[in-house]
Design brief:
This protein has 3 domains: 169 residues, Sandwich (Jelly Rolls), CATH 2.60.120; 90 residues, Immunoglobulin-like, CATH 2.60.40; 316 residues, TIM Barrel (Alpha-Beta Barrel), CATH 3.20.20. The protein contains 9 helices and 30 strands. The strands form 7 sheets. The chain has an 8-stranded parallel beta barrel, surrounded by 4 helices. Strands 3-2-4-9-6-7 form a 6-stranded antiparallel sheet, with no helix packed on it. The chain has a 4-stranded antiparallel sheet with strand order 1-12-5-8, with no helix packed on it. Strand 18 and strand 19 form a beta hairpin. Helix 2 packs parallel to helix 3 and helix 7 packs parallel to helix 8.
Length: 600
């Protein structure tokens, strides 16, 4: 799905702002026809934002079920003669869109965009009543999974096995846009280079174009055309190519024009970074050079907005990444807003792009509560859950396939992978990543309870990513023993698998301002010492090609006796102020210069 844009042939209207808002406490909105008339409410909600954090009413924050957003929109007169679409960048976790009371789109999957052609339901120059219903319910058949239970007081409660708060609502932008009847519907770009010559292969999908011609031009950052081609599928040759590199991004504009004789039918511009990614033995290569990941697992999480996207937060987060010396992050544990991916492209930050398949591990029920069930089965992860995962993979790759910053697809985080049922469940998704995008490696994120001699999914992927908490959840407060055990485990992994290994999580909960001369857990001193221990271990193993700390910043979780108003493993506080560990990382990463580990 191409992201909408303005061009010589396209119009775009942003619908962010204050929307009328109503919580469907009695589950009556659909039957009562709420979408066909003005919502009976005096509440407004900001879009984009997670509604949970906006209001002081706890019943709204904890609501399980549907909520309704509504506003009037005037269709611009400039849309005349064009196809008109409404696009929702995300609705967590299910969205239904109505125009003047008629449902025009429905989508399940909280972190992916969806849209509807509403041309036949609108008249240019006139107002429409746009209503979006959003459902936050997670079941065993959704990605991520969850379960709804009823409390002793008769209140519905959402349970789930992932350790971050189930923020809901319209957390990303809403758009109204137009395209010509004949238009570019999709583009796939694959880049390569040899010596100083680059290549950009594009495949465009054209809708309703008939005998129209596709012409392509590649434009450099100075505005000069450096290559041209014709046809919906062609390769542009780029002399003296400037590569997209980590920390030194260079982006070309791929301008595609559909013409019918001398008439311009449609135009679309796509940012392109020329670079290659591949795995060779235990090395991860970007542009044929070994790359060492430094960075974080992150979250879309801020006070007041929850997961709501905000460009000011975006810029500040990337400035903090730059300050600390990070060159990468993982979109843990769901795809982030497209603005984030665009910004990573522009600033040369490398991204491991992850689906929302988190919580597929019933062993976590001991931590988060709930019945003890098998991870895979009729009541838990079943064929419908697997279908939802496959759809999540398709949508993720369709959305993010052209981002040069994205170097790897992550299929799942911390799932149970030590039984044959896990292979049966995840193998189709892993194979699907290769089918849809053979240009990038794939991975999964291995949990600590599924070590090298137990995990059955590791042989299926190109890169192994490990989440490990030696010195925190194991050998708690005993860093000397943790170091021994961590070395022993990495020996097992590197001896069994000759593939790159990225440590995608390691961290310790820390209360900002808590200090201990004895390096006691939860103190800033312990967090710094914990990181230093891990780094000594990583530097022993050439096969370890990256370190991403958990987490970039403190973040909100659902209430629990082992969480103090959220997860405190952040190297930065939730308002992005550094703990002592941030200076530890900055000293290491700003002198690391992407070197190979000392074991080489």
């Amino acid at each position: 799905m191409l992201r909408p844009q303005t061009s010589a042939t396209r119009e775009l209207q942003n619908l962010d702002g204050l929307w009328q808002f109503k919580v469907d406490f009695k589950e009556e909105g659909f039957n009562a026809g709420w979408a066909a008339k003005q919502l009976d409410t005096d509440i407004q909600a900001a879009v984009p934002a997670s509604y949970n954090e906006l209001f002081t009413d706890t019943k709204i924050r904890d609501h399980v079920g549907w909520v309704w957003y509504q506003r009037k929109v005037r269709v611009p007169r400039g849309f005349a003669g064009e196809r008109t679409f409404v696009r929702v960048d995300s609705a967590t976790h299910e969205g239904a869109v109505f125009v003047n009371g008629k449902e025009v789109a429905r989508h399940v999957g909280g972190y992916m965009p969806f849209q509807a052609d509403i041309t036949d339901h609108v008249t240019v120059g006139e107002e429409i009543l746009l209503t979006i219903a959003v459902n936050n319910v997670l079941t065993n058949e959704t990605i991520p999974p969850g379960r709804v239970v009823t409390s002793a007081a008769g209140v519905k409660q959402q349970t789930y096995l992932h350790d971050f708060y189930n923020y809901a609502g319209l957390a990303r932008s809403i758009w109204l846009y137009s395209v010509p009847a004949a238009h570019i519907d999709d583009v796939t770009v694959v880049t390569d280079f040899e010596g100083n010559t680059g290549s950009v292969n594009y495949k465009a999908v054209i809708t309703g174009a008939g005998s129209a011609t596709v012409k392509a031009a590649l434009v450099d950052e100075a505005g000069a055309v450096v290559a041209t081609a014709e046809g919906a599928n062609a390769t542009l040759t780029v002399p003296n190519v400037k590569l997209w590199q980590p920390g030194n991004a260079y982006l070309y504009d791929l301008v595609l024009r559909v013409t019918d004789g001398d008439k311009l039918v449609d135009e679309y511009t796509l940012k392109v970074g020329v670079r290659t990614v591949r795995v060779a033995g235990n090395q991860f290569l970007i542009n044929n050079e070994p790359f060492y990941f430094t960075g974080f697992g992150m979250h879309e999480d801020h006070v007041t907005k929850g997961k709501g996207h905000d460009n000011a937060f975006l810029v500040n987060d990337f400035e903090v990444l730059k300050w600390v010396g990070a060159n990468s992050f993982r979109t843990s544990h769901y795809p982030y807003a497209e603005e984030v991916m665009d910004y990573a492209d522009r600033h040369g930050i490398v991204v491991i792009d992850e689906t929302a398949a988190v919580g597929l591990n019933q062993s976590f029920s001991s931590m988060f509560g709930g019945p003890k069930l098998p991870t895979y089965g009729p009541e838990t992860a079943n064929e419908k859950t697997q279908a939802a995962l496959l759809q999540a993979v398709r949508e993720l790759i369709a959305r993010d396939k052209n981002h040069p910053s994205v170097v790897m697809w992550s299929v799942t985080n911390e799932s149970e992978t030590g039984i044959q049922e896990a292979v049966d469940f995840f193998k189709p998704a892993i194979e699907l990543t290769r089918e849809l995008d053979p240009t990038r490696p794939n991975t999964y994120i291995n949990v600590m309870t599924q070590p090298f001699d137990k995990c059955l999914v590791a042989p299926l992927v190109d890169v192994i990513c490990l989440n490990r908490y030696w010195g925190w959840y194991e050998d708690h407060s005993d860093l000397a023993s943790a170091e021994v055990h961590w070395v022993d485990e990495l020996k097992g992994w590197t001896e069994k698998y000759d593939v790159p290994i990225v440590i995608t999580e390691y961290g310790a909960d820390t209360m900002a301002g808590a200090h201990s001369i004895h390096n006691l857990p939860w103190s800033e001193e312990y967090q710094a010492a914990y990181l230093e221990m891990n780094h000594r271990v990583f530097d022993l193993f050439p096969g370890v090609v990256g370190e991403q700390v958990w987490n970039f910043a403190d973040f909100q979780t659902k209430p629990g006796i082992f969480r103090v108003l959220g997860n405190k493993k952040g190297v930065f506080t939730r308002d992005r102020q550094p703990k002592a560990a941030a200076h530890t990382l900055r000293a290491r990463w700003n002198t690391l210069h992407n070197r190979k580990p000392a074991g080489n």
